[in-house]
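Shipment paperwork, digital attachment
Item: protein structure file
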Amino acid sequence: MKDTHTLLNLLLLLVYLAGSALTTDGGSGSINGPLELTIVGPDFVKVGVPRSFDCAAQCSPSCSYRMSIYGQIWQGNKLLFTARQWEESLNLTCTARNDDSGRSSTVSKILQVLAGPTNISITGPALMTPGAPKSFQCYADCRQSCNYTWGINGRWRGGQGIEITVTPEELATSVTLNCKAINSVSGLYDMATRTIPVTYDGKSMATQAEQTRPASVHIHTLTLHRNINIIQEKVVLYKEVICSPHAYLTNLKTCHHYYRQ
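Attachment content:
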């Protein structure tokens, strides 16, 4: 009976010692890792712009890390990476290996690659006429995608998209368009500006105004009789015709006549 009790105590001691060998510093009984391996960093990279990433895990006593992207491998848990060209996506991986047990774990992170906006431009007709609507388009090199905002003569209008329709006001000499392309992911933007002349009967308002300057027209010669010697003197009169700069728009007689010597 005594021998049985002694053997039982010895067995309990062995179980206790075995359990102590498996516990961690916190006494939870969990494996020493690597656990909860993760990559910390942005979900996208922009072409030509450096981005940093970190790899971390719960690991005891310590872990060694290896990170890879583009088929290249870096030792350590920190990576500074620059995308050189646009691709649909990139796969960044990190592997952590327990220095004591040799256990390892790998995690991946899919990165979007952004580019632009660059080379933004406004296309459309070269001339406009009052009251006649015209359409203009805005284009930019942009990945993944861009949103477009338009401004007309300094007033911005949201939610117009890639195309806008513009109708010049009466008496307008030109219309100035602004297009802002905004990367839908990064928020980066670029802007283009274009000024379109407004024409009337094929001529710009500036040309029409030049042609309606006040004109002096010789109309006739009068003969006047002065003093008793009846000296005849010819006096030349001129008529000045001053017209409204925009009279030709309505074909109305809006000119004023003045006579001078």
